[in-house]
């Protein structure tokens, strides 16, 4: 049996998201590109490829991975490209979306053979977290002044607008798209394609998928544009767990449990956004604080309720360990890196990657 810790991707759960994405594509005519910055575990790309149109990226490494491991349509985007990487970026992409007019002009010649676009920033967003708010004051993410964009329209054929963030509220999405239309209508009319970015939680329970698809279709028809979506979290949400084993228990005013993992090393996003991990069912009379094994005092997954008293050797499974989690894993404290396993549709378990001392050693020099 595979040693913990490991990330476990459950294909039957992934399939539920894929099927919703397929419905939205079919009903709206929009294309869906996986955002690799959220999830880049390429062992399941063969599976996801049938339900999505390709990938989008935020760096040279990502655009190359998308091209080589996923295939289909490959969009390149980055906040800023360096001179030494632009040719390689272009060689892997069907479309390149520049973050600024400055970058578009700087790389005009090198990018002339592929479709080009520009990121627009409408100045409104659904994010309540300053850290993740593309429309935060003085944001560097995209151009906002229509007058500056009009003169470069002959160099581009479309736009990317990413201003949703974990947005579960269709009415809010609808309203913000209305804001975008109001602000940028003359530009949208000249475009051939518009990517509405990610951050829309349309694979979540109870999301009004039909209304969403209808809204996208209406937008597409009004401006005569191919709409793209760039779902990251929505593609893989609830598909993956982090499997751990309890190594020790202590008592210090609360029941403490130490597992063979670390929130800082293996679920860093939760620490950054000050959220607790999730366990299911999180019900029962035995409350315990589950802690990581790194030296960081605040390496804590959260406090949970268990049906039985937690003992050394018990397994604890943390939910929702795919998005912004596997891509951020790191070697802090030299904690054993979680392996990666896939539960196939027939229920069988397949280990696709294990990490060893040499991976740790080679991560530095
Ligand atoms: C982060 C990002 C995405 C994916 O966002 P999710 O919230 O994971 O859906 C898509 N497009 C762009 C431009 C992004 O920066």
TrEMBL record:
<dbReference type="GO" id="GO:0009089">
    <property type="term" value="P:lysine biosynthetic process via diaminopimelate"/>
</dbReference>
<keyword id="KW-0745">Spermidine biosynthesis</keyword>
<feature type="binding site">
    <location>
        <position position="269"/>
    </location>
    <ligand>
        <name>substrate</name>
    </ligand>
</feature>
<keyword id="KW-0210">Decarboxylase</keyword>
<feature type="binding site">
    <location>
        <position position="233"/>
    </location>
    <ligand>
        <name>substrate</name>
    </ligand>
</feature>
<protein>
    <recommendedName>
        <fullName>Carboxynorspermidine/carboxyspermidine decarboxylase</fullName>
        <ecNumber>4.1.1.96</ecNumber>
    </recommendedName>
</protein>
<comment type="subunit">
    <text>Homodimer.</text>
</comment>
<keyword id="KW-0620">Polyamine biosynthesis</keyword>
<dbReference type="InterPro" id="IPR005730">
    <property type="entry name" value="Nsp_de-COase"/>
</dbReference>
<keyword id="KW-0456">Lyase</keyword>
<keyword id="KW-0663">Pyridoxal phosphate</keyword>
<keyword id="KW-0963">Cytoplasm</keyword>
<comment type="similarity">
    <text>Belongs to the Orn/Lys/Arg decarboxylase class-II family. NspC subfamily.</text>
</comment>
<dbReference type="InterPro" id="IPR029066">
    <property type="entry name" value="PLP-binding_barrel"/>
</dbReference>
<comment type="function">
    <text>Catalyzes the decarboxylation of carboxynorspermidine and carboxyspermidine.</text>
</comment>
<dbReference type="GO" id="GO:0045312">
    <property type="term" value="P:nor-spermidine biosynthetic process"/>
</dbReference>
<feature type="domain" description="Orn/DAP/Arg decarboxylase 2 C-terminal">
    <location>
        <begin position="179"/>
        <end position="321"/>
    </location>
</feature>
<dbReference type="GO" id="GO:0008295">
    <property type="term" value="P:spermidine biosynthetic process"/>
</dbReference>
<dbReference type="InterPro" id="IPR022643">
    <property type="entry name" value="De-COase2_C"/>
</dbReference>
<dbReference type="InterPro" id="IPR009006">
    <property type="entry name" value="Ala_racemase/Decarboxylase_C"/>
</dbReference>
<dbReference type="GO" id="GO:0005737">
    <property type="term" value="C:cytoplasm"/>
</dbReference>
<dbReference type="GO" id="GO:0008836">
    <property type="term" value="F:diaminopimelate decarboxylase activity"/>
</dbReference>
<dbReference type="Pfam" id="PF00278">
    <property type="entry name" value="Orn_DAP_Arg_deC"/>
</dbReference>
